[in-house]
Amino acid sequence: MALKGKNAVVTGAVMGIGKAITEILLQNGAKVALLDVNETAGKSLMKTLSEQYAPENILFLNCNVESEKDIKAALQKAAETFGGIEIMCNNAGILDESTWEKMVSINLMGVIRGTYQALDHMNKLKGGRGGVIINISSLAGIGPLPSCPVYTAVKHGVVGFTRAMAAASASLGYGIRFNTLCPGFVKTELFSNIPKKLGLFSELTVVTQQLVENFGVLNVSEVAEAFLELVTDETKNGEALLVLPENEEGKGGNKYITFPSALQQ
Fold first, then answer.
1. Is a pLDDT exceeding 70 seen at residue 264?
2. pTM, entire model
3. What is the DSSP string of 31-99?
4. Which active-site residues does the annotation give?
């Protein structure tokens, strides 16, 4: 998929990974609706981006992914402004084991809400043009992060939901590809605050630090490049792309995960 002239929506778009994804989409000629609850940061970012890219290609919308009403209204506004939606990135997320219900609501239910609302605009069976939906998971969606069991659970959920939606779309003819991006530790505010957000499992801070030292830390630009690969490569559907830094031994780097096929007879 060539991105020039395509219309994209990114949730959690004004900081960290979401901001990097927004920027790489704009760099490649897409129009982007930035959805976020941080209105001050959102308007500031939109002003900055409008000095680098065509202002008519950028739209900020205050949106809480915990609200069905918010997401529906935001996607409707984005579709009306740009003339449709071809790319959806469900990126909004938090890490806080002490408020695990909210983490489930944002990190998993928010992805589901965003996906289902995007279908109304993208599904070829409903007059949409098809496209691609990328859901942001994590290294914790591939293997357990002991200090963050609920975060691990919701990120596994994102991977499973995305793979199931890819299969459903292919079977029903939606014309939409679904992929999930699973970055390791990324240099963001969320990463910096992990030791303060472990709740019941704060005693495992050292274990988490050992994992960080083992896997290394990515820059947001590396995650955005992997996102671009999943969006543009039309052969990718139902994929989970693990993104890790390459170390001196040549380990790490990007890897497509192979899952067992126990359900296939």
1. no
2. 0.95
3. EEEEEES-HHHHHHHHHHHHTTS-GGGEEEEE--TT-HHHHHHHHHHHHHHHT---EEEE------GGG
4. 151
